[in-house]
From TrEMBL:
Belongs to the glycosyltransferase 34 family. This is Uncharacterized protein. It comes from Monilinia fructicola. It comes from the Eukaryota. One of its GO terms (molecular function) is alpha-1,6-mannosyltransferase activity.
Length: 383
Protein backbone atom coordinates (compact mmCIF):
# COMPACT_ATOMS: atom_id res chain seq x y z
CA UNK A 1 0.00 0.00 0.00
CA UNK A 2 1.35 3.36 -0.95
CA UNK A 3 0.87 6.43 1.18
CA UNK A 4 0.20 9.85 -0.32
CA UNK A 5 2.96 11.58 1.66
CA UNK A 6 6.30 10.29 2.93
CA UNK A 7 6.56 9.64 6.58
CA UNK A 8 7.64 12.63 8.72
CA UNK A 9 11.24 12.59 9.98
CA UNK A 10 11.83 12.73 13.66
CA UNK A 11 12.73 16.22 14.94
CA UNK A 12 15.50 14.89 17.20
CA UNK A 13 18.63 13.43 15.56
CA UNK A 14 19.45 9.86 16.30
CA UNK A 15 21.65 9.29 19.33
CA UNK A 16 24.35 7.60 17.27
CA UNK A 17 25.07 10.81 15.28
CA UNK A 18 27.56 12.89 17.33
CA UNK A 19 27.56 16.72 16.91
CA UNK A 20 30.14 18.10 14.43
CA UNK A 21 33.34 19.07 16.20
CA UNK A 22 34.86 22.64 15.71
CA UNK A 23 38.35 21.58 16.79
CA UNK A 24 40.01 21.80 13.37
CA UNK A 25 38.81 25.33 12.46
CA UNK A 26 40.00 26.58 15.86
CA UNK A 27 43.42 25.06 15.25
CA UNK A 28 43.59 26.73 11.86
CA UNK A 29 42.70 30.14 13.32
CA UNK A 30 45.26 29.76 16.13
CA UNK A 31 47.97 28.80 13.64
CA UNK A 32 47.22 31.84 11.46
CA UNK A 33 47.48 34.17 14.47
CA UNK A 34 50.81 32.62 15.42
CA UNK A 35 52.20 33.14 11.91
CA UNK A 36 51.08 36.77 11.84
CA UNK A 37 52.61 37.49 15.26
CA UNK A 38 55.90 35.85 14.29
CA UNK A 39 56.05 37.87 11.07
CA UNK A 40 55.44 41.09 13.01
CA UNK A 41 58.13 40.20 15.54
CA UNK A 42 60.65 39.45 12.80
CA UNK A 43 59.80 42.75 11.09
CA UNK A 44 60.33 44.69 14.32
CA UNK A 45 63.69 43.00 14.89
CA UNK A 46 64.85 43.81 11.36
CA UNK A 47 63.70 47.43 11.75
CA UNK A 48 65.59 47.88 15.03
CA UNK A 49 68.74 46.29 13.62
CA UNK A 50 68.60 48.45 10.50
CA UNK A 51 68.27 51.59 12.63
CA UNK A 52 71.20 50.58 14.83
CA UNK A 53 73.53 49.29 12.13
CA UNK A 54 72.49 51.85 9.53
CA UNK A 55 73.08 54.87 11.76
CA UNK A 56 69.41 55.73 12.10
CA UNK A 57 69.49 58.66 9.65
CA UNK A 58 69.81 56.90 6.36
CA UNK A 59 72.77 59.17 5.60
CA UNK A 60 74.81 57.83 2.67
CA UNK A 61 78.41 57.03 3.42
CA UNK A 62 80.84 59.72 2.35
CA UNK A 63 78.40 62.55 3.03
CA UNK A 64 80.31 65.69 4.08
CA UNK A 65 79.35 66.85 7.58
CA UNK A 66 79.63 70.53 6.59
CA UNK A 67 79.16 72.51 3.39
CA UNK A 68 80.76 75.96 3.17
CA UNK A 69 78.63 78.37 1.14
CA UNK A 70 80.22 81.55 -0.24
CA UNK A 71 78.23 83.68 -2.67
CA UNK A 72 80.58 85.22 -5.21
CA UNK A 73 80.21 88.73 -6.58
CA UNK A 74 81.55 88.12 -10.07
CA UNK A 75 81.05 91.75 -11.13
CA UNK A 76 82.51 93.76 -8.26
CA UNK A 77 85.67 91.71 -7.72
CA UNK A 78 88.51 90.50 -9.91
CA UNK A 79 88.73 86.86 -10.92
CA UNK A 80 92.09 86.58 -9.14
CA UNK A 81 90.57 87.72 -5.87
CA UNK A 82 87.63 85.35 -6.26
CA UNK A 83 89.97 82.45 -7.00
CA UNK A 84 91.99 83.18 -3.87
CA UNK A 85 88.84 83.24 -1.74
CA UNK A 86 87.72 79.94 -3.25
CA UNK A 87 91.13 78.38 -2.63
CA UNK A 88 90.94 79.47 1.00
CA UNK A 89 87.67 77.56 1.41
CA UNK A 90 88.64 74.56 -0.72
CA UNK A 91 91.89 73.80 1.08
CA UNK A 92 90.20 74.03 4.47
CA UNK A 93 87.28 71.86 3.31
CA UNK A 94 89.62 69.26 1.80
CA UNK A 95 91.47 68.96 5.08
CA UNK A 96 88.32 68.10 7.05
CA UNK A 97 86.24 66.30 4.43
CA UNK A 98 83.80 69.18 3.95
CA UNK A 99 82.08 70.33 0.77
CA UNK A 100 82.17 73.79 -0.80
CA UNK A 101 79.49 75.63 -2.76
CA UNK A 102 80.21 78.83 -4.72
CA UNK A 103 77.06 80.22 -6.34
CA UNK A 104 77.14 83.70 -7.81
CA UNK A 105 74.78 86.56 -7.06
CA UNK A 106 73.36 86.31 -10.57
CA UNK A 107 72.14 82.77 -9.93
CA UNK A 108 69.18 84.09 -7.93
CA UNK A 109 66.36 86.42 -8.92
CA UNK A 110 66.34 89.05 -6.18
CA UNK A 111 63.67 91.18 -7.89
CA UNK A 112 65.70 94.35 -7.51
CA UNK A 113 66.67 93.79 -3.87
CA UNK A 114 70.25 94.52 -2.73
CA UNK A 115 72.80 91.85 -3.63
CA UNK A 116 73.40 91.05 0.04
CA UNK A 117 70.11 89.13 0.00
CA UNK A 118 71.67 86.46 -2.24
CA UNK A 119 73.10 84.57 0.72
CA UNK A 120 69.59 83.55 1.83
CA UNK A 121 68.50 81.64 -1.31
CA UNK A 122 72.07 80.33 -1.59
CA UNK A 123 71.76 78.74 1.85
CA UNK A 124 68.37 77.32 0.89
CA UNK A 125 69.91 76.00 -2.32
CA UNK A 126 72.67 74.29 -0.33
CA UNK A 127 70.12 72.54 1.90
CA UNK A 128 68.59 71.05 -1.24
CA UNK A 129 71.87 70.30 -3.01
CA UNK A 130 73.35 68.58 0.07
CA UNK A 131 70.24 67.04 1.71
CA UNK A 132 72.15 64.81 4.12
CA UNK A 133 74.86 67.26 5.20
CA UNK A 134 74.40 68.21 8.84
CA UNK A 135 75.62 71.82 8.79
CA UNK A 136 75.51 74.64 6.25
CA UNK A 137 78.10 77.32 6.97
CA UNK A 138 77.47 80.57 5.10
CA UNK A 139 80.66 82.63 4.92
CA UNK A 140 80.81 85.90 2.99
CA UNK A 141 83.55 86.36 0.42
CA UNK A 142 85.02 89.24 2.44
CA UNK A 143 86.05 86.81 5.17
CA UNK A 144 88.98 84.40 5.39
CA UNK A 145 89.40 81.15 7.29
CA UNK A 146 92.55 81.84 9.32
CA UNK A 147 92.90 78.76 11.51
CA UNK A 148 92.42 75.59 9.42
CA UNK A 149 93.03 73.33 12.41
CA UNK A 150 89.58 74.11 13.85
CA UNK A 151 86.58 71.98 12.87
CA UNK A 152 83.05 73.36 12.79
CA UNK A 153 81.61 70.33 14.62
CA UNK A 154 84.08 70.60 17.51
CA UNK A 155 84.91 74.30 17.70
CA UNK A 156 81.30 75.52 17.52
CA UNK A 157 78.49 72.98 17.08
CA UNK A 158 79.35 70.37 19.70
CA UNK A 159 76.38 70.73 22.13
CA UNK A 160 78.47 71.09 25.28
CA UNK A 161 80.91 73.43 23.58
CA UNK A 162 78.05 75.50 22.17
CA UNK A 163 76.40 75.81 25.58
CA UNK A 164 79.63 77.18 26.99
CA UNK A 165 79.85 79.74 24.17
CA UNK A 166 76.24 80.92 24.00
CA UNK A 167 75.66 84.54 25.04
CA UNK A 168 72.44 84.32 27.04
CA UNK A 169 70.00 87.06 28.05
CA UNK A 170 71.61 89.36 25.49
CA UNK A 171 69.74 92.15 23.66
CA UNK A 172 69.28 91.23 20.01
CA UNK A 173 69.96 94.83 18.96
CA UNK A 174 72.33 96.45 21.44
CA UNK A 175 72.37 98.27 23.67
CA UNK A 176 68.76 98.40 24.84
CA UNK A 177 66.56 96.05 22.81
CA UNK A 178 63.92 94.55 25.10
CA UNK A 179 64.01 91.27 23.16
CA UNK A 180 66.87 89.13 24.43
CA UNK A 181 68.29 85.69 23.78
CA UNK A 182 66.77 82.95 25.91
CA UNK A 183 68.68 81.98 29.02
CA UNK A 184 67.60 78.34 29.25
CA UNK A 185 68.40 76.95 25.80
CA UNK A 186 70.44 73.77 25.41
CA UNK A 187 73.18 73.35 22.85
CA UNK A 188 71.52 70.32 21.29
CA UNK A 189 68.40 72.35 20.48
CA UNK A 190 70.17 75.11 18.56
CA UNK A 191 69.74 75.24 14.77
CA UNK A 192 71.09 78.72 13.97
CA UNK A 193 74.42 80.14 15.20
CA UNK A 194 75.77 83.60 14.43
CA UNK A 195 77.54 86.55 16.03
CA UNK A 196 76.70 90.09 17.04
CA UNK A 197 78.65 93.32 16.72
CA UNK A 198 78.08 96.75 18.25
CA UNK A 199 75.29 97.50 15.75
CA UNK A 200 73.35 94.25 15.94
CA UNK A 201 73.29 90.82 14.35
CA UNK A 202 76.07 90.03 11.89
CA UNK A 203 75.44 87.39 9.25
CA UNK A 204 78.82 87.56 7.56
CA UNK A 205 79.34 84.10 9.04
CA UNK A 206 76.51 81.89 10.28
CA UNK A 207 75.75 78.19 10.61
CA UNK A 208 72.48 76.32 10.07
CA UNK A 209 71.67 72.77 11.11
CA UNK A 210 69.95 70.61 8.52
CA UNK A 211 66.22 70.16 9.06
CA UNK A 212 62.73 71.46 8.39
CA UNK A 213 63.21 74.36 10.79
CA UNK A 214 66.11 75.74 8.75
CA UNK A 215 64.04 75.61 5.57
CA UNK A 216 61.20 77.40 7.33
CA UNK A 217 63.57 80.03 8.70
CA UNK A 218 65.20 80.78 5.34
CA UNK A 219 61.83 80.93 3.59
CA UNK A 220 60.59 83.37 6.23
CA UNK A 221 63.69 85.54 5.98
CA UNK A 222 63.46 85.68 2.18
CA UNK A 223 59.78 86.61 2.20
CA UNK A 224 59.03 89.20 -0.55
CA UNK A 225 57.43 91.44 2.06
CA UNK A 226 60.77 91.89 3.85
CA UNK A 227 62.75 92.26 0.63
CA UNK A 228 60.46 95.01 -0.62
CA UNK A 229 60.21 96.88 2.68
CA UNK A 230 63.43 98.86 2.09
CA UNK A 231 65.03 98.23 5.45
CA UNK A 232 68.01 100.53 5.91
CA UNK A 233 70.37 97.55 6.10
CA UNK A 234 68.30 95.25 3.92
CA UNK A 235 68.70 91.60 4.94
CA UNK A 236 70.38 92.50 8.26
CA UNK A 237 67.46 94.54 9.56
CA UNK A 238 65.00 92.01 8.16
CA UNK A 239 66.77 89.30 10.15
CA UNK A 240 66.69 91.39 13.32
CA UNK A 241 62.99 91.98 12.79
CA UNK A 242 61.99 88.34 12.43
CA UNK A 243 64.23 87.24 15.30
CA UNK A 244 62.62 89.76 17.65
CA UNK A 245 59.04 89.17 16.53
CA UNK A 246 59.02 85.39 16.03
CA UNK A 247 59.79 83.32 19.15
CA UNK A 248 59.88 80.23 16.93
CA UNK A 249 63.07 81.63 15.41
CA UNK A 250 64.54 83.14 18.56
CA UNK A 251 64.13 79.81 20.37
CA UNK A 252 66.53 78.12 17.93
CA UNK A 253 69.14 80.89 17.82
CA UNK A 254 72.47 81.13 19.63
CA UNK A 255 74.78 84.13 19.70
CA UNK A 256 78.47 83.33 20.16
CA UNK A 257 81.45 85.68 20.65
CA UNK A 258 82.78 87.26 17.47
CA UNK A 259 86.24 85.75 17.75
CA UNK A 260 84.70 82.27 17.54
CA UNK A 261 83.64 82.55 13.90
CA UNK A 262 83.53 86.18 12.70
CA UNK A 263 86.35 88.32 14.12
CA UNK A 264 86.61 91.79 12.62
CA UNK A 265 89.73 93.49 11.37
CA UNK A 266 89.88 96.05 14.18
CA UNK A 267 91.30 96.61 17.62
CA UNK A 268 87.86 97.05 19.20
CA UNK A 269 85.85 94.35 20.92
CA UNK A 270 85.50 91.41 18.56
CA UNK A 271 88.73 92.28 16.78
CA UNK A 272 90.86 89.57 15.22
CA UNK A 273 93.64 87.98 17.28
CA UNK A 274 96.18 85.36 16.33
CA UNK A 275 94.60 81.92 16.36
CA UNK A 276 91.03 83.07 15.72
CA UNK A 277 89.01 80.97 13.30
CA UNK A 278 87.76 83.59 10.83
CA UNK A 279 88.71 87.14 9.95
CA UNK A 280 86.08 89.40 8.37
CA UNK A 281 86.48 92.86 6.82
CA UNK A 282 82.87 93.93 7.24
CA UNK A 283 83.66 96.70 9.70
CA UNK A 284 86.36 98.62 7.87
CA UNK A 285 85.46 98.58 4.20
CA UNK A 286 88.42 96.50 3.04
CA UNK A 287 87.24 95.05 -0.23
CA UNK A 288 83.64 94.90 0.93
CA UNK A 289 82.56 97.99 -0.99
CA UNK A 290 81.43 97.70 -4.59
CA UNK A 291 83.24 100.98 -5.26
CA UNK A 292 86.64 99.50 -4.46
CA UNK A 293 88.82 98.28 -7.27
CA UNK A 294 90.45 95.04 -6.09
CA UNK A 295 93.24 95.48 -8.62
CA UNK A 296 94.44 98.54 -6.69
CA UNK A 297 95.37 96.16 -3.88
CA UNK A 298 95.89 92.90 -5.69
CA UNK A 299 99.07 91.76 -7.36
CA UNK A 300 98.65 89.31 -10.20
CA UNK A 301 101.84 87.38 -9.53
CA UNK A 302 101.66 83.68 -10.33
CA UNK A 303 103.28 82.86 -7.00
CA UNK A 304 100.46 81.51 -4.76
CA UNK A 305 102.08 82.90 -1.62
CA UNK A 306 102.36 86.29 -3.31
CA UNK A 307 98.69 86.17 -4.16
CA UNK A 308 97.58 85.34 -0.64
CA UNK A 309 99.86 87.87 1.03
CA UNK A 310 98.61 90.51 -1.41
CA UNK A 311 95.02 89.66 -0.64
CA UNK A 312 95.63 89.87 3.08
CA UNK A 313 97.41 93.18 2.61
CA UNK A 314 94.24 94.43 0.94
CA UNK A 315 92.32 93.42 4.06
CA UNK A 316 94.72 95.47 6.20
CA UNK A 317 96.63 95.29 9.46
CA UNK A 318 97.99 93.33 11.28
CA UNK A 319 99.29 92.01 7.96
CA UNK A 320 100.43 95.37 6.57
CA UNK A 321 104.21 95.21 6.80
CA UNK A 322 104.46 98.93 6.13
CA UNK A 323 102.96 99.78 9.54
CA UNK A 324 105.80 101.35 11.54
CA UNK A 325 106.93 99.45 14.59
CA UNK A 326 104.60 96.50 14.03
CA UNK A 327 106.31 93.13 14.52
CA UNK A 328 106.15 90.61 11.72
CA UNK A 329 104.76 87.98 14.04
CA UNK A 330 101.28 88.20 12.55
CA UNK A 331 102.32 87.47 9.00
CA UNK A 332 104.56 84.68 10.26
CA UNK A 333 101.61 82.99 11.89
CA UNK A 334 99.63 83.29 8.69
CA UNK A 335 102.44 81.73 6.68
CA UNK A 336 102.53 78.85 9.13
CA UNK A 337 98.81 78.35 8.51
CA UNK A 338 99.36 78.15 4.77
CA UNK A 339 102.25 75.76 5.32
CA UNK A 340 100.07 73.55 7.48
CA UNK A 341 97.64 73.27 4.59
CA UNK A 342 100.36 72.55 2.07
CA UNK A 343 102.02 69.96 4.29
CA UNK A 344 98.65 68.29 4.81
CA UNK A 345 98.16 68.16 1.05
CA UNK A 346 101.67 66.78 0.61
CA UNK A 347 102.79 69.70 -1.52
CA UNK A 348 105.70 71.25 0.32
CA UNK A 349 107.63 71.30 3.57
CA UNK A 350 110.50 73.52 2.52
CA UNK A 351 109.43 76.86 4.01
CA UNK A 352 109.00 75.83 7.64
CA UNK A 353 112.41 77.24 8.60
CA UNK A 354 111.58 80.50 6.84
CA UNK A 355 108.39 80.75 8.86
CA UNK A 356 110.28 80.19 12.11
CA UNK A 357 112.90 82.85 11.37
CA UNK A 358 110.34 85.41 10.22
CA UNK A 359 108.05 84.74 13.14
CA UNK A 360 110.66 85.72 15.70
CA UNK A 361 112.16 88.73 13.94
CA UNK A 362 110.61 92.21 14.49
CA UNK A 363 110.61 95.05 12.05
CA UNK A 364 113.18 97.83 12.42
CA UNK A 365 111.81 101.33 11.90
CA UNK A 366 108.89 99.89 10.00
CA UNK A 367 110.96 97.83 7.57
CA UNK A 368 111.77 94.16 7.40
CA UNK A 369 115.43 93.24 8.07
CA UNK A 370 117.41 92.66 4.84
CA UNK A 371 117.82 88.93 5.38
CA UNK A 372 114.05 88.54 5.55
CA UNK A 373 113.47 90.89 2.66
CA UNK A 374 115.71 88.64 0.60
CA UNK A 375 113.80 85.55 1.68
CA UNK A 376 110.40 87.07 0.99
CA UNK A 377 111.16 89.45 -1.87
CA UNK A 378 109.17 87.35 -4.32
CA UNK A 379 105.86 87.56 -2.54
CA UNK A 380 105.71 90.49 -0.07
CA UNK A 381 105.25 94.19 -0.77
CA UNK A 382 107.42 96.70 1.09
CA UNK A 383 106.06 99.95 -0.40
Amino acid sequence: MHLAYPSRKASNPPAYLAPRSSRFPMLRRSRAKTIVLCACAIGVVFFILSRILGGGDGVPSGTPPVVIVTVMDTVGYSKEYQDSVKENRIQYARKHGYATFFPSIGDYDLHGSPNSWAKVPAARHALTKFPHTEYVWVLEQNALIMNPALKVEDHIMNPKRLESLMIKDQSIVPPDSVIKTFSSLKGGNIDFVLTQDKDGLSQASFILRRGEWSKFFLDTWFDPLYRSYNFQKADTHALEHIVQWHPTILSKLALVPQNIMNAYNSDAAGGYKDGDFVKSTRDNGGLSSHNDDPNLYYDNSSNPYHQHISMLRAIGSPYDLRTAGRPTKSIGIWISTRLADRVFLGESKTLSSVYYLELHTPTVNGTVPPILAKLFDRFVFYG
